[in-house]
């Protein structure tokens, strides 16, 4: 398995393989091998192909399995144990599942990968949060971040506008991952709170999740290289 040049800016990039078929995912993964740090398998691909999707992608780069688990602690722990069997490097759970659930996910992975706790989805606006009885992002995101880290999560997922507040809340040693990253001039698509790649890194992001600006580009490799060129080295 190859990766970007050691310490190179491409290591910061996580490509979201949000495609419907295993063939498309495998072709993208093969093309992007050595260009980016991680390849993300999300719900669509996993629902269609299950563990085979992870195995196909893992031949080319470390896998970030984005399932956003949210269930009772025992169920999440058992699911995380099955994920550990696949050799996944990163696994998402919802921070709102609470400390016991997060602790279960960490136990389930057993050190075979890292739990990333999702704070508030990047698609949610302030009125969306209010509609489900949650405080605004400025309050809710740092609160969930602290809960997750205290429960043992070594990493967090948060929207670009929340990065500075989350870093202040949890300190320098927690991995911060941000979706909603769009190069200058790219469409925001269904993301409500976005940033440019360089802006997200400047605000404290360690990894940037980028999907359509790369996967739907005429030349995905060139698109990934162009984004990497905007970034500082880790």
Summarize the helices and strands and which ones pair or pack.
Elements: E1 13-16, H1 22-32, E2 38-41, H2 43-49, H3 51-58, E3 63-69, H4 73-85, E4 90-94, H5 99-109, E5 114-118, H6 126-131, H7 137-150, E6 155-157, H8 163-170, E7 175-178, H9 197-202, E8 207-210, H10 212-215, H11 220-229
Parallel strand pairs: 1-2, 1-8, 2-3, 3-4, 4-5, 5-6, 6-7, 7-8
Describe this structure in words.
The structure is a single chain. The chain has 11 helices and 8 strands. It is of the alpha/beta class and 234 residues long. It has one domain: Alpha-Beta Barrel (TIM Barrel), CATH 3.20.20.70. Helix 1 runs parallel beside helix 3, helix 2 packs across helix 3 and helix 7 runs parallel beside helix 8. The protein is globular and about 40 Å long. The model has no long low-confidence stretch (mean pLDDT 91).
What is the residue-averaged pLDDT? Answer: 91
Cα Rg: 17 Å
Strand content: 15-25%
Structural class comes to alpha/beta
Number of domains: 1
Remind me, CATH topology?
Answer: TIM Barrel
CATH class descriptor name: Alpha Beta
Give the H and E element order: EHEHHEHEHEHHEHEHEHH
Structural features:
8 strands, TIM Barrel, alpha/beta, 11 helices, 234 residues, 8-stranded parallel β-barrel
Task: Give me a quick take on this structure.
The protein is of the alpha/beta class. 42% of the residues lie in helices and 15% in strands. It has one domain: TIM Barrel (Alpha-Beta Barrel), CATH 3.20.20.
